[in-house]
Amino acid sequence: MDFEIPDELHYTSDDEWVHTEDDFVTLGVTDFAQQQLGDIVYVELPSVGDQLESGVAFGVIESVKTVSDLNAPISGQVVAINEELVDQPEIINEECYGGGWIIKVKPSNQDQIDSLLDADSYRKIVSKRST
Fold it and tell me: What is the pLDDT of residues 22-57, one digit of tens each?
């Protein structure tokens, strides 16, 4: 299988992507994750203002196959949620790196972003798991 892994993003070993913009980051699930999950039918989102802690679940993503936690790759405050996912969770399957973003967070510690995986490191993880 072929997976899209954009070079400009950071990644987690939990198959989430992080895009840094000015003083906040956008989070979503990777192409590999959405292909593994299959048709996504539900996403449980946090509330704007919620505090996230790195490594702790902040929501749930449910597909026809399974239910998975969404884990925060960094600590910070939720500043926006993708409300379109409430009625149309399948947007994640259609464009996981675009309209299928999940939340935006104001990081409490910018240094945590540097500890995330770059695209090449994430590609190595995916290639091991997809063989």
Answer: 899 999 999 999 999 999 999 999 999 999 999 999
Asked whether residue 47 is assigned to any structural domain, the reply reads yes
Domain count, the chain: 1
What span, in angstroms and rounded, lies between the C-alpha atoms of 86 and 30?
19
Rounded distance, CA 10 to CA 131, Å? 23
- Map tokens 């972003």 to a residue: 113
Q: Which domain holds residue 14?
A: 10-110
Provide the edge-to-edge strand list for the sheet that holds 103-107. 10-11, 16-21, 24-29, 103-107, 76-81, 51-52
Model-wide pTM > 0.85 = yes
In the numeric block, which tokens belong to residue 69? 């936690």
Residue matched to tokens 């292909």: 35
Domain for residue 127, yes or no? no
The 10s digit of each residue's pLDDT in 49-86 is 999 999 999 999 999 999 999 999 999 999 999 999 99
